[in-house]
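Re-run with default settings, no changes from the original entry. Doing this only to confirm the output is reproducible before filing.
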Amino acid sequence: MRFIALVKFKKNPREFVAENLKMIEKESKKGIKYLSINWTLGRYDAVAMFEAPNEKEAMQLAIRRADFLDMETLVAIPAEEARKLVD
């Protein structure tokens, strides 16, 4: 399953970047694959796109980061698959 996370930093990024990178490394062993992570200007501080085996793994990913990030996580369906739903 593919997910998009809209992220707001709760703390200065200098305080958690190293810890977050360690989490990403551990999560890859659980089948979570980050497709992109982009820091942004505007309403959100970052946007991440990732694949996870299921919703539970995606939710645990967000919970692990609750001390330093607010995340709004969306399920993403690739356009080519979504188009089949309207046929």
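The first strand starts at residue 2 and ends at 9. Residues 17-28 form the longest helix (12 residues).
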